[in-house]
Amino acid sequence: MAPTTTPGSDPTDTLETADVVVLGMGPGGEHVAGRLAEEGLDVVGIDAELVGGECPYWGCIPSKMMVRAADLLAEAHRIDGVAGHAEVHADFGPVTRRIRDEATDDWDDTVAVERFEKKGGTFVRGRGRLVGPDAVEVDGRVYRATRGVVLATGTSAFIPPIDGLADTPYWTNREAIAATTAPESIVVLGGGAIGAELAQVFARFGSAVTVVEAAERLLPLEEPEAGHLLAEVFGAEGIDVRTDVAAARVHHQDGRFAIELADSTVVDAERLLVATGRRADPAGIGAEHAGIAADARWVDVDADLRVAPGVWAVGDLTGKGAFTHVAMYQADIAIADILEQPHEPARYGALPRVTFTDPEVGSVGLSEADAVAEGITVAVGSTQVGSTARGWLHGPGNDGLIKLVADRDRGVLVGATSMGPAGGEVLGLLTLAVHAEIPLDVLRTMIYAYPTFHRGVEDALRDLDA
């Protein structure tokens, strides 16, 4: 990196050049920056927060540690009547210790920074902003890229404009992950993936939990059957589920929250978790300098992840899915494009996602409603996991379903849902089928191992023919 200054200029206006400047060092940004540095490019990585981003510190990794612990409690409760008797005593302490010691290093990214720097990169701690299509400013210092700028600033928790909410000590997923004890009671605003996962975790550790979802069902982005079944499971576990109703007003007094709902009912709790989605902030990073409209919700990219000449974007910021696996997928394409290496363009038709509730909810491709909206001649087949041989053998905790969405004219799957004790794992087979456009006739001739959860796909295929 070569610093230059204009004679007589303020030293804070120092201009430094590099081959590539990466703004945002979450999973995708860190991967791009690290790989390009390994290839010998002069790379500057910029982030005001922790290198690695949301996933290792507040998202995927620590939240799934919490989920794993909560699932163990649930499994222990299922021993009675199947394998003897167990007395279960929940303790949140080991969960928080494991998160701090094994996942987040107590929210210290020293190791991640050093890992990047050992690859030859230069890390700059600060909030960066585009000041030109090839220049990023951080605290008065400008970093100009001679080869390209990569935007990877991710998303943050969306806080809805509910009357009274802003003045209260509400939690987002970050505070929930950092909690050292399970609250006595908690209201979760939002029944999407984050809200549903954390609601079930806290309930299994003894919290009285209420979930409030403005949409008609839990997991509104998933198939209706999945959301309705999850609500039944939550109800059986003592979670109070309120759907099709929004929060109208929030009060906080004497250490408790009272949330007035649009139907005039009131729910109260010690804690309030706001899990109403994520949002990007293109305007906040000066994306207009790359030709992005100031009021844009996302940064538009082409199939090579290009935003404009010399500018790429990867990860949540692109609006293609707020998942680490999407960021890493896009990062590899952007890396190859920057290095002018052959690569396949980005495709999202077989994008998988998993909500790690119990039962897990995995889905890929189009839902039935989306397929119909696209004008596809749809055929649907489904089966209940509990009615399969493996589901019956599994016994307690075997709630779930497999749903297939096919294009009848082309004879291929365009979407699928796998919900059950191993929903995310069964999804692998279905993701391959959608991605590779494997003909239904080929899927019907496969040999499905007995008795496995994925054998339920064969049952759903039979239903597809009915």
Summary?
This protein has 466 residues and is of the alpha/beta class.
Helical amount among residues, as a percent range?
A: 25-40%
Give the amount of beta strand, in percent: 25-35%
Integer-rounded radius of gyration: 24 Å
- What's the total number of strands? 23
Uncertain segments: 4-12
User: How many angstroms does the end-to-end distance come to?
Assistant: 65 Å
CATH-defined fold name of the largest domain: FAD/NAD(P)-binding domain
Mean pLDDT comes to 95
CATH architecture descriptor name of the largest domain: 3-Layer(bba) Sandwich
Shape: globular
Provide structural commentary.
About 2% of the residues have low confidence. This protein has 14 helices and 23 strands. The chain is α/β, with parallel strands linked by helices and 466 residues long. Helix 1 packs parallel to helix 9, helix 3 packs antiparallel against helix 4 and helix 3 packs across helix 7. The strands form five sheets. Strands 1, 2, 3, 4, 5, 6, 7, 17 and 18 form a nine-stranded mixed sheet that branches. The chain has a five-stranded antiparallel sheet with strand order 19-20-23-22-21. It has a four-stranded parallel sheet with strand order 11-10-9-15, covered by helices on one side.
